[in-house]
Design brief:
By secondary structure, the protein is of the alpha/beta class. The protein has helices at 26-31, 33-42, 44-64, 74-89, 115-125, 148-155, 166-178, 199-205, 221-227, 254-263, 291-296, 322-330, 333-337, 341-353, 360-363, 365-370, 374-392, 432-444, 469-473, 476-483, and strands spanning 97-98, 133-134, 139-140, 159-163, 182-186, 192-193, 197-198, 209-213, 232-238, 268-273, 301-305, 316-320, 396-405, 417-426, 450-451, 453-455, 458-462. It has three domains: 4-89; 97-105 and 371-483, Aspartate Aminotransferase, domain 1, CATH 3.90.1150; 115-359, Aspartate Aminotransferase, domain 2. It has 20 helices and 17 strands. Bound molecules: pyridoxal-5'-phosphate. Residues 165-167, 170, 191, 193, 197, 238-239, 241, 271, 273-274, 305, 316, 410 line the site of pyridoxal-5'-phosphate (PLP).
Length: 484
């Protein structure tokens, strides 16, 4: 399908300028068979809007002398209306192919849902469900109960509740447990997560006063103990998800902070950020702290994300003691941050997968992608090399290359995942930088956009996240055309 020709406004004067008197009227355009067919399909309102907008743009260009007579033939106008309708009805949210090498990519929607989660989500959304209805008693139920038992089983916690995302989980936990009072946090853990989530600001939004203890690189148990006053409500630890402090460092673990808190009758909370419901080292991946370990260490509240390593929908999970989670659940702000039924359905099915750890690396896409071996990925790159080379020749050369990817979303920031993929380099030094930008733009402009990354004067396509080679190969004819 040709794209809307009328939008290609380069501002240059027309060779054979259209006469403004020849511009078709809106009514006449609407009566054209091709346009009438659009009206039959989509209704009068939208088509008429687009025809009006088109007429206005044609009039303006005719006035400027940039409209060619060939652009207002009936066929050209049909085509332009069709192009506008397609553009108007094309969703802005689109499926892309993630070849960045970052598995949990925040800008690309983070974790991919498992098939069972997609199916459960679809089935539950297609009709009424028992979201807040207790089927046993026939009375009102609580949406938390959909996942509470599962979360308690998987983490060893006494109680659990869920909210919109982990930022909300942290905000709500602090507000419920420490509003109007003080929260003690190490200076080494005052993190900023992407998108303006900064611990000191969250603390202020929750109405609590942050009390910083220790230094950037070293905090000791007595720093916490000495900072406790009658105004203290909570001791807190924050997982330094997206950076690492190395060298002369020391921090206090959750178990120790919890002991200090409990000795003074205070609760202790930890924000794990990603967290992993299972020990990732079982699959040869770097260990990420698990909620189960933190509950066992004595934390009263543990918060973590649903769409990072857990591999589910966007969600903020709060697990902990009956007493602390009970206060959090009853806090009025909970209602504003509660989870929608859509992610709740996906979350339930995702958590269910963890009941069968032996199958997890097949069933959970995040873990499936993370556990792909560099050899398997290199073989896939070998098999795609010829097709890609022929699509980008003669302007670019392609080779199979070892690469280093990452988990992403602040999980295990310093670890790199050995991977492989295709490296595309401009042929000839002249204008190489521009050629690379053009290539990256052409890949992004494909019907299913392909997102790679530019590094070392090449465009790198890391294939770790490409499970469906066919979907990528199907884009190559369009790429050849765009570069041709
Ligand atoms: C990612 C992260 C958050 C925010 O979680 P969202 O689910 O993105 O809202 C909070 N704290 C830490 C430590 C994180 O890594």
């Amino acid at each position: 399908m040709t794209r809307l020709t009328e939008s290609v406004v380069d501002g240059s004067q027309a060779k054979n300028p259209a006469n403004p008197k020849d511009l078709p009227s809106i009514d006449r355009v609407l009566r054209r068979p091709a346009v009438a067919a659009l009206v039959a399909e989509h209704g009068h309102t939208l088509v008429a809007d687009e025809v009006r907008a088109l007429a206005e743009s044609l009039r303006e260009r005719a006035r400027q002398g940039t409209l060619d007579a060939a652009q207002i033939t009936p066929e050209a106008v049909d085509e332009a209306v069709l192009g506008r309708m397609q553009a108007r009805l094309a969703p802005r949210l689109r499926a892309v192919i993630n070849l960045t090498g970052t598995v949990i990519h925040t800008n690309l929607g983070r974790a991919l849902l498992a098939d069972s989660a997609l199916q459960h989500l679809l089935a539950m959304m297609a009709g009424p469900n028992n979201l807040e209805y207790d089927l046993a008693s026939g009375g009102r139920g609580d949406r938390d109960s959909v996942v509470e038992e599962l979360l308690c089983t998987l983490t060893g916690a006494e109680a659990a509740t869920v909210v919109n995302n982990n930022a909300a989980a942290v905000l709500l936990s602090i507000a419920a447990l420490a509003r109007g009072r003080e929260v003690i946090v190490s200076r080494g853990e005052l993190v900023e997560i992407g998108g303006a989530f900064r611990m000191p600001d969250v603390m202020a939004s929750a109405g609590a006063t942050l009390v910083e203890v220790g230094t950037t690189n070293r905090t000791h148990p007595h720093d916490y103990a000495n900072a406790i006053t009658e105004r203290t409500a909570l001791l807190m630890k924050v997982h330094t998800s997206n950076y690492a402090v190395q060298g002369f460092t020391s921090s206090v673990d959750e178990g120790e902070i919890a002991r200090i808190a409990h000795a003074r009758g205070l609760p202790m909370a930890t924000d794990l950020g990603s967290g992993a419901l299972v020990d990732m080292s079982l699959w040869g991946l770097p260990h990420e702290p698990t909620p189960r370990e933190k509950i066992a260490a004595g934390c009263d509240v543990v918060t973590f994300s649903g769409d990072k390593l857990l591999g589910g929908p966007q969600a903020g999970l709060i697990v902990g003691s009956k007493e602390a989670v009970g206060r959090i659940r009853k806090f009025p702000m909970k209602r504003a941050l509660r989870m929608s039924k859509l992610p709740l359905a996906a979350l339930e099915a995702t958590l269910m997968l963890y009941l069968r750890p032996e199958r997890l690396a097949q069933d959970l896409p995040t873990l499936r992608l993370l556990t792909r071996t560099a050899e398997a990925i290199r073989e896939q790159a070998d098999s795609l090399l010829a097709d890609v080379q022929s699509a980008v020749a003669p302007r670019f050369s392609v080779e199979v290359k070892d690469m280093l990817g990452q988990i992403g979303s602040g999980s295990l920031p310093v670890e790199r995942l050995p991977s492989a993929g295709l490296a595309l380099a401009p042929v000839g030094k002249k204008g190489a930088g521009r050629a690379l930008d053009e290539l990256a733009a052409a890949l992004r402009a494909l019907p299913r956009p392909v997102i790679g990354r530019v590094a070392e004067d090449r465009l790198l396509l890391d294939l770790r996240c490409l499970e469906d080679s066919a979907a990528f190969v199907a884009q190559l004819p369009a790429l050849r055309q765009a570069l041709g």
